[in-house]
Amino acid sequence: MERFVYQELIAWKNSKKRKPLVLNGARQVGKTWLLKEFAQREYAKTAYVMCRKNDLVKDIFSVDFNIDRILRALSALTGVDITPQDTLLILDEIQEVPEALEALKFFCEEAPDYHIAVAGSLLGLSMHVGTSYPVGKVSTINVYPMNFEEFLLAKGEGQMQQLLASKDFSTINLLHEKYVDLLRQYFYVGGMPEAVQAHIDKEGLQAVRSIQLEILRGYDRDFTKHAPANQVARIRMVWQTIPAQLFRENKKFIFGAVSRGSRAKDFEIAIQWLCDAGLVHRVQRVSKPELPLKIYAEMNAFKLYLSDIGLLGAMAEVQPAQILVNNNIFKEYKGGMTEQYVLQQMVSHEIGGIYYHSTDESRLEIDFLVQREGALLPIEVKAEGNVRSNSLSNLLQKRSDLHAERYSMLPYKEQEHLTNVPLYAV
């Protein structure tokens, strides 16, 4: 599989100011595979160390932070001579040995010529209590589920992906139906690499769903293993209610829907834990669509999305036929699946500062607001071809200086203050 983040790994390797690398991301997004593939392609030697359930690794890092001693021990453990420049040292599941994470500071300061990369689930969370995270001494690269472009490449649709990248919409529009079919597949499979691989290998839709459910079970085990004990139940309650909240017409997260009579303070730690773990994305509401958006953000008004659209479908028990066959799928699930997809596409491209706008006294809502090239960009998401919208029309009438984008199932079209972009081209 080709992952766009691979180019960031190349840039890290070639950087004159290279520091130890931390690969951040939720469980099962492909961090280990990426590092092993990167090492195989770009280095003469690979020294791979699995930290989980490895007492020898714990012993190596628990003595002291003498880097020469640590390197000799890791060379003996892996059977690989770890030498500068030509060896990639990989420490996987590093959260199991917090002292190893702390040691990265000393690798940075005392052995900058050695190439070391680490990966693990839930880095930077409560399991590091009592150790020091090496702030400023590591480089960080985020890994997300595969986006739609990467899905196309994995499917062998490289020409379709390149055509999207070229933005030649006169040609893209001719292939509209094929893109829609591929997008439907992505809505079901999502971007978790193991699920994508099963789909490519034609193992069947139920095999894909089984993989998704096993990933979800793994997340649930992480709640118990890594979260503060007094927050586990609340984390589960928030997590399990997200699909139902997204599939409502008003997608603002309602605390009372988690537990009757509950308030923001009851679940704020649980929600932040899920966000920090990379399992959930929070999109805050702004009181007015003005720059800078962050100033108008409301702390207790937000929408929660999952990290992956395939996992959302699995949690909601959406059946394959409802996505792959039923032409009404985008009507039935437009509030959840389509916004989830658009948000996931933006996150995968490291778009920051994503907000939305609505008012409690009306049904008017701008689905997403971002800042692009110093200007405010309103984004409307429509799951089908019916694109009537009082909200966006009213905003553009009031603000003639704005140019908006609408993502829908219609082909690409430019208008005076609005660009219509097909969902598969987000």
Please explain how this structure is put together:
- The longest helix has 22 residues, at 205-226.
- The chain has 19 helices and 13 strands.
- It has helices at 6-14, 31-42, 55-63, 67-78, 98-110, 148-154, 158-166, 169-172, 176-189, 193-200, 205-226, 232-246, 255-258, 264-276, 309-315, 320-324, 329-332, 334-348, 390-398; strands at residues 21-24, 45-50, 87-92, 115-119, 139-142, 280-286, 297-306, 355-358, 365-372, 375-381, 404-408, 413-414, 418-422.
- The two termini are 21 Å apart.
- A hairpin with a 2-residue loop joins strand 9 (365-372) and strand 10 (375-381).
- With 426 residues, the protein is α/β, with parallel strands linked by helices.
- Strands 7-6-8-9-10-11-13-12 form an 8-stranded mixed beta sheet.
Spell out the blueprint of helices and strands.
Elements: H1 6-14, E1 21-24, H2 31-42, E2 45-50, H3 55-63, H4 67-78, E3 87-92, H5 98-110, E4 115-119, E5 139-142, H6 148-154, H7 158-166, H8 169-172, H9 176-189, H10 193-200, H11 205-226, H12 232-246, H13 255-258, H14 264-276, E6 280-286, E7 297-306, H15 309-315, H16 320-324, H17 329-332, H18 334-348, E8 355-358, E9 365-372, E10 375-381, H19 390-398, E11 404-408, E12 413-414, E13 418-422
Parallel strand pairs: 1-4, 1-5, 2-3, 3-4, 6-8, 10-11, 11-13
Antiparallel strand pairs: 6-7, 8-9, 9-10, 12-13
Helix pairs in contact: 3-4, 6-7, 9-15, 10-11, 11-15, 12-14
